[in-house]
Design goal:
alpha+beta, 4-stranded antiparallel sheet, two-stranded parallel sheet, 8 strands
């Protein structure tokens, strides 16, 4: 008895402390939780968050070039000599020990000013790209989530209708054995039953694939079990198309990034001219020098102001200005094309929303008629007034109607998310779905 207790304790400790024995994490998450999880753990968002932070540090680094610079240095110098005197005329002694402290302040430098402005624009651009990355990932999560729900609902529909096809198949065998229907009815019923079974297996495979993709997007481990909570919304509101088009031009991250690039090259075109002006620097120098063999210590300070002005660089500055001007024209052309493309995306998603809303309404009406048709077909088949094929076709019609309803419903949700992504306002809340 004691050995059994000891074995149980050892086994319990093994499962608690051994890493490999950890059970997969169980998660039941709704769409909002999945979107929040993706914003925290998605690899693309983490990478872009790092790029945003790098741009921030680079801006601070560029600003530091305008501030005073303090340096300290020390050195030992050994020179050749004869009769205690150094051979090198610039040497103060055979053996020198020196140290100095310097303070430098840039007064005007065109390159430093351009670096500050460029790094500032880059910081703003990376912030825009970060917003773009978040919205892209959120859209991927939405698409994967509704794909999974659609496949899960398809599984429910196929299971329900598979039972109906199984009953029809069994009924055909019974009627055939009693000489009521031909053997052909049995074969048709069996083939359709197997086809529906295959569609059920495919829906299950697609559902697992969608769940795995959601885990990848949200940073969950592949071995974690994931159960999706249903969406609570049943209706979707649409504003007018001009409202969405205007919002896209104001909020789309890609347009903001393109405008920042235009500003970058416009600033370069103007500021490059400043390179023709002198660069000025001022500084204070303080140090000491011990000279051997005199063994005296010299201390002193210097204050200096330097000017540097380009005279002839073979047209380098002018070429830089020409290149920046061409870049500006290219960016302006790309921005105009981008605006047209975004407008077309908004129109496409808006039309897709309207089509899916109409499709969903049509499938709701069709499902009622298809359900009644199945009921009447089964009665007619039992009474011998219609054939086995008529029953199969009506049952298939009901299945297709139910599947297409869910396809239209979730396609509407995805289209609405795509519409908000096209206007640059997709968020982890459900404002886009209302």
């Amino acid at each position: 008895m004691k050995s059994g207790k000891i074995y149980f304790i050892i086994l319990l400790l093994y499962f608690v402390h051994y890493p490999g024995a950890a059970r997969p994490q169980e998660n039941r998450l709704d769409l909002h939780q999945l979107m929040e999880l993706a914003l925290k753990k998605n690899a693309d968002i983490q990478f872009q968050r790092g790029e945003k932070q790098i741009a921030k540090y680079q801006w601070r680094q560029s600003v530091s070039q305008l501030l005073p610079q303090v340096d300290v240095e020390a050195g030992l110098i050994k020179s050749s000599g004869r009769n205690g005197m150094p051979d090198f005329i610039a040497a103060n002694g055979l053996f020198e020990k020196n140290a100095w402290l310097s303070l430098q302040q840039p007064i005007f430098n065109a390159s430093n000013i351009m670096n500050v402005l460029n790094s500032r624009i880059e910081q703003q651009k990376q912030g825009v790209l970060y917003s773009q990355a978040m919205q892209d990932v959120l859209l991927q999560v939405v698409e994967a989530y509704f794909t999974a729900l659609q496949n899960r609902d398809d599984i429910t529909v196929y299971k329900k209708n598979l039972n109906a096809f199984k009953i029809l198949y069994d009924q055909s065998k019974y009627l055939y054995e009693n000489g009521v229907v031909p053997e052909l009815d049995v074969k048709k019923s069996r083939v359709e039953y197997l086809l529906q079974k295959n569609m059920l297996l495919k829906a299950r495979k697609d559902y697992l694939a969608a769940l795995n993709y959601i885990k990848e997007l949200t940073g969950l481990a592949i071995q974690d079990s994931l159960d999706l909570a249903n969406i609570l919304f049943t209706t979707v509101h649409l504003d007018s198309l001009p409202v969405y088009l205007q919002s896209a031009l104001e909020n789309r991250p890609e347009i903001k990034a393109a405008e920042l690039e235009k500003k970058r090259y416009a600033d370069q075109t103007r500021l490059i001219r400043l390179q023709h002006l002198p660069s000025a620097n001022a500084g204070v120098y303080y140090g000491w020098d011990t000279v051997d063999p005199f063994q005296s210590t010299n201390k002193g300070w210097q204050v200096y102001l330097t000017l540097s002005m380009p005279l002839w660089h073979w047209g380098r500055i002018h070429r830089e200005q020409q290149i920046a001007s061409i870049h500006y024209q290219q960016t302006e052309a790309l921005t105009n094309r981008l605006q047209k493309q975004i407008k077309q995306q908004v129109i496409n998603f808006y039309q897709e929303c309207r089509i899916q809303m109409q499709q969903m309404q049509a499938m709701q009406e069709s499902e009622r008629d298809a359900t009644e048709a199945v009921r009447m077909a089964k009665i007619g088949y039992q009474e011998g007034t219609i054939t086995n094929l008529d029953v199969i076709n009506t049952q298939k019609l009901l299945t297709e109607t139910q599947v297409k309803y869910y396809q239209a419903l979730y396609a509407l949700y995805v289209a609405k998310a795509g519409l908000y992504r096209s206007i640059g306002k997709l968020k982890e809340d459900f404002s886009w779905l209302e």
